[in-house]
Amino acid sequence: MKTQIEKIREEFLKQLALIKDNEELRELELKYLSRKGEFSEIMHGLKDVSIELRKELGELANTVKGEMQTKFEEVRHSLESFAKKSDFIDVTLPGEKIENGHIHPVTLVQNELEDLFTSLGFMIGDGPELESDYYNFTALNVPPLHPARDMQDTFYIESKNKEDQYDLVMRTQTSPVQIRLMQKYGAPLKAIIPGRCFRNEATDSRHEHTFYQVEGIMVGKDINFANLKSLLEIVGKKLFGANTELRMRPKFFPFVEPGNNGEYTCFLCQGKGCRVCKYTGWLEIVGAGLIHPDVLRAGGVDPEIYSGLAFGFGLNRLAMLKYNINDVRLFNSGDIKFLEQF
Ligand code: DAH
């Protein structure tokens, strides 16, 4: 019986060392220490032995049981305090910082223009970035071999457009979407077309191969130069403040007649002259004009009945002015330190 007690003790301690959770602990308690456990059986057995032996074995059994109980409590304790520790939240610790995304500065300016033009009843149009040579140039009054093609060197794709067998180009401007929208919706039509454009540029702080424009088109009966001027004035005041003035100077663009450059009072020096406006007091912002009759025709609109105006903003340039950015290449750099500032 003595060895039996020793064996129980040994076995108990071995199993106690392997305990991982409360469940296992409870099972062990049931098996060894409960009223129906192995120790109780030993105690029952004591009544069949001699008085002397009963005394000796009884004492031994009690000491061993006491020792087992203490060890058991120790393990129970450490399990409890471990559970407490892992539940504990220190509310005074500094929180984990959740990084916010940022809207790209070009998108900010685009959103501003979209808000303005939709409030004036313009729809927002879209067109392909990989464009047919016909839409990008020919339909806009720049036929093959026309010298105006030199103004916009681009990337040609080797394969041809499946539908019309024209060459494919990465569009150099958003202007081809003017034709696509006129063909789709006819006149009257009021739309702006924001989008990405591409040119074969030797890149530097002011030139980039990939950039953004917002095109505008308005076609209807009796659309005239006064409409164009007032529209561009509204845009200028919205972008650069209520005191902004507009001046329009002639400039050749093949798809408009007359064509011109819209310039706004430099908002940095209020027209006094500074480095940014090259001491002229004016910022060249927008190409514009009245749509050439050939371009209306290419869009399926009869120039005898309808006329139209068109304009094109360079979004990168607008964002550079607005946020005082000095290198156009930052826009496509993916530089987080740059983007986080907006
Ligand atoms: N597409 C021209 C460019 O990229 C900008 C432009 C000028 C657009 C005059 C127009 C316009 O619609 O009327 O340089």
Name the features:
40% helix; 7-stranded mixed sheet; alpha+beta; single chain; 342 residues; binds 3,4-dihydroxyphenylalanine; rod-shaped
What does it look like?
With 342 residues, the chain is an alpha+beta fold. 40% of the residues lie in helices and 20% in strands. It has helices at residues 2-17, 22-33, 38-45, 51-87, 105-119, 133-136, 176-185, 225-240, 293-298, 315-323, 336-339; strands at residues 123-124, 130-132, 156-160, 167-170, 189-198, 210-220, 246-250, 256-265, 282-291, 307-314. The structure holds 3,4-dihydroxyphenylalanine (DAH). 3,4-dihydroxyphenylalanine (DAH) binds at residues 173, 175, 215, 253, 256, 259, 287-289, 310-312.
Short description, anyone?
This protein is of the alpha+beta class and 342 residues long.
Instruction: Return Rg in Å.
Output: 42 Å
Report how far apart the termini are. Answer: 83 Å
Structural class: alpha+beta
Relative helix content = 40-55%
Average residue-wise pLDDT = 92
Question: Which series of helices and strands comes N to C?
Answer: HHHHHEEHEEHEEHEEEHEHH
Largest sheet: 7 strands, mixed
What is the strand content? Answer: 15-25%
* Beta strands, count: 10
Give the neighbour order of strands across the main sheet: 1-5-6-10-9-8-7
- Ligands bound here? 3,4-dihydroxyphenylalanine
Categorize the overall geometry. rod-shaped
User: Unreliable runs, pLDDT <50, ≥5 residues?
Assistant: none
Number of helices: 11
